[in-house]
Amino acid sequence: MTMQPSPHQPKPRHIALVAYADCQVLDVTGPWQVFASANTLADTRLYDLTLVARGARQVTTNGGLALQANLDWQGLELIGAPDTLLVAGGSGVFEQCRHRYHIDGLRHMADSVRRLGAICSGAFLLAEAGLIDGHRATTHWRHCEELARRYPDVEVVADAIHVEDRGRYTSAGVTAGIDLALSLVEADHGHELAGRVARELVMFLHRPGGQSQFSEALLSQQRAGPRLRPLINVLHATPGGEHDITSMAERLAVTPRHLSRLFQRQLGTSPGEYLTRLRLEAARKELITGEPSLERLAARWRLGGSEQFRRLFQRQYGVSPSIYRARFSSRSTPVPSP
């Protein structure tokens, strides 16, 4: 049975995704399922979905799975510009950048859509079309340097999950497209529905756009040299311990000043800032798994009082602890005052 919009619901938003030979299957199916699940969970048609490809024909993804398109660019123009137009990434994107078909289609449609975006390396097509010149954008971490080199007018944000800049939306690789789609659902219909969709898809966490593409632990292990790595391992194992600049320096048998230089040279930050990030990450995990008191979280992880904790959390994650927990906790309850 086809879902019909409620008389009290606005007109469904039209989401069009652009696919091509050797696109990444999850760049298409991940965001598609987010919008489809929003329809199901809302029990009304919030979104109409269209797959656009050359000749409205079947396209074979780089994983070998074939997808059947609904429309080509001409057909899309006939039914009217979508609300949101997203371009999939994948190994085939570089071949598409050498041809006019999708570039011309994107340029023709760009001014008529409310949101124009790309998942993963789909950003290369937007950049080739000149549609993200002067904008902040991201892509798969492996391709960030190449995107910046090829398109110097694009401000590449190399370590973000997704980026929005004046109606242009880009995401990092593969599953980050799901995070981008969740953020669009949240913008359209609120964090409660976006959270329900994330839980329905068994997403561990709907990640904010500014969150790193990598784990802090993995990055630090890769960047820290053998002199600093033993201390890094201890800090990650016991972030709530009684660590200060003196005790950390003593552990490595160096002066506090030399320790600070090691951190700056290898990790680009100070020992104190690094430890604070680790403690915030530990507190964030507890925040979404049940600890209701900011005061107790701040004390447990040595982050000052509740007000200081709020300020540090806002600076690190871009949202307040209460909003973060409302979005991502399976309980979806607000954080009470201490």
Automatic annotation (TrEMBL):
Gene3D superfamilies (UniProt xref): 3.40.50.880, Homeodomain-like
User: What's an example of a GO molecular-function annotation for this chain?
Assistant: sequence-specific DNA binding
Transcription regulation as a keyword of this entry, yes or no, is yes
Question: Which residue range or ranges hold the HTH araC/xylS-type domain?
Answer: 229-327
Q: Which UniProt keywords apply?
A: DNA-binding, Transcription, Transcription regulation
Write down the superkingdom of origin. Bacteria
Q: Which InterPro entries match?
A: Class_I_gatase-like (IPR029062), DJ-1/PfpI (IPR002818), Homeodomain-like_sf (IPR009057), HTH_AraC (IPR018060), HTH_AraC-typ_CS (IPR018062), INH-QAR (IPR052158)
Q: What is this protein called?
A: HTH araC/xylS-type domain-containing protein
UniProt lineage: Bacteria, Pseudomonadati, Pseudomonadota, Gammaproteobacteria, Oceanospirillales
